[in-house]
UniProtKB/TrEMBL annotation:
Protein name: Rolling Circle replication initiation protein N-terminal domain-containing protein
Coiled-coil ranges from the UniProt annotation: none
Stretches assigned to the Replication initiation protein-like C-terminal domain: 113-281
Pfam (any one): Rol_Rep_N
Lineage, highest ranks first: Bacteria, Bacillati, Bacillota, Bacilli, Lactobacillales
Organism field: Candidatus Enterococcus willemsii
Annotated Rolling Circle replication initiation protein N-terminal domain residues: 9-101
Amino acid sequence: MASQNNLRALFDWIQIQLFINEPLDTIIHNVLGIPSDYFFLKQGKLEHYDYDHVVEYGAIRIYFDSSEQKLDCMLVMSGEALEFYRTEVLGKMKLTVKDFLLNLFQVYENQFRITRVDPAIDDWNTIPYFTPQQLMKICRKKRFIYGKSTYFDVYGLETKEKGMTVYLKPPSADDRLKFYDKQAEQAKKQGVRKKDIPPWIRTEIVFRREKAHEFVRHYLALDIELIDLVKGYLKAKVKFYTDDEFKTPLRAWVKFLGKSRPFSLSIPKTKSGLVKKFDWYFHHGAIAVYHAYLFCIENHLLSHDERMVYEEKEVLFPPDLASELQKRATQYGRTELVEPIVERTKKATSRTGD
């Protein structure tokens, strides 16, 4: 019989966009607690982003733009990187991934966004609560619902040796769910027979964009274990049934979730950093001073020398404001404005240090 004692939760992917105007070696030390000279530099690109170089250590990667046209960088930690980081870095300092995330929020506050995070639950029971094949059969009969979605997809063959993955929600979703056979995956990776690897079924949520950041924020704010938070989210959102009328819940799914409390992830409609700057400008008096200046110009209340002081002044964006403008231009598909923004930006400190 499957037991809750054979379940464990972990993060299988963490991706963080950092908007920090500091040299890269300083960021590496302050964020990861790793000496920067452990990392090696090479050319590297990240899909959907304009970075052209990457530094890497133990599969931990930080992508950045070597031309300094972008004032941000992207920390990418895959499952392999996180396992290395947990064992070889955090473990030796008697710290956890939660400690790492807490430090990030405390030190850099609003200077970063978590763009992807994959919390997962591993089932190591000899006879698991369920398998991807069992859930696939239910999905094909349309006896499930994930929020308001009934979309599902299957990857892989229905064979014991190769395993398979069942996805709920389409690839574009910001909270896609997947169930897969880690036992088969690891056997293939290690070049051994599946029976030589202990049974291992993984349930994983892929949070992206705002939901990724908010999930981590809730995890750090609540006094709760990661496994209970993940189960709570699944209990609130995902239902499997054994009948077409949706009256009889799948018993294995109910047992898997146990006594966890349902948890809903709501995304607050917060103002962007750029809009907050506009709010300050319009509501804290600066705009009134600017209009007073225009009034003096229109009514010839400034001398020629006074006018020249302001008209000849070159206005450059501070790096943090330039970063917000770049993000806004990119979001609106106006990437041709990125270079003009860079040209009008105060020179930032070198990203790579000495």
